[in-house]
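ERR on first pass: missing label on line 2. Operator R.T. fixed the label and resubmitted. Corrected input:
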Amino acid sequence: MGWQLGKAGNKATFVDIGSLISAVIYFIVFMAVVYFVIVLPYKHIQARRGVKVFGAEPKTKACEECLSDIPEAAQKCKYCASEQPRSREKTTEFAVAATTSQSGTARARDAR
Ligand SMILES: [Zn+2]
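pass 2 clean. output:
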């Protein structure tokens, strides 16, 4: 099965679609075997050990001091050891207090 591009009977210019289709089928079957024989048991074993593999990355935020990516729930930066705002609500509260007055900044600092 295929197309003859050049002279009839020339095997060098024959596009064999059948071998392409069989290669695609072989690839799909091979990947299914790899998935069910290696990946699924590995995920199952790691889940029993309490480790999540092949999942979504944990959410991160940028440190305000050094701009490194740190976990979103972090209260201290692991790179520069600066204190992190605990949540977004307190961040906005701090920003509003800082813009309104000097005593607002002091209050926000005491709240930490
Ligand atoms: Zn930092």
